[in-house]
Amino acid sequence: MLMPSKRTIAPIQAADEEATLADERDIPHVMVIDLGVAQVFRPGNFRHNHPMGTPATMAPEIWSGEVTPKADVFSCGATLFEVLSLRLPLPNVPVHAAEAVRFWSGPAPIDWTLLEHSSSDARDLARRMMTVQRHTRPSAAECLGTCFLHDAE
Asked: Distance between CA atoms of 40 and 146, rounded to whole angstroms?
């Protein structure tokens, strides 16, 4: 499920997922939420000692309780990777927080060769969106300005 960080204007049903649109005056920001957790929750409020969602698309910092808009950029990058390759970028992320934190203490084991058939603009955007260090990850607005999204017709 894709949700804006601000007001929701209209839900859109698309296959198995929902998307909502923000008012055009809002700063671009997208949140990715699994339909299985489409409920009211507070960021950082982990039940059963693990975040809710799909581990394979969750940003590394989520496992330590850091929930920011850039975590959602990572999730969108993981979704873009999956759309381009038809495979999850990180299928082996552990489901428990302590194990996931250890998993992310090393380099991300992403097989970027799965995107060789994609355009260089698409590969570059996915790679930038899935940067492990959130401080160097682009914002949603910066992603929208990339050649892959900006020059699309």
From this structure: 33
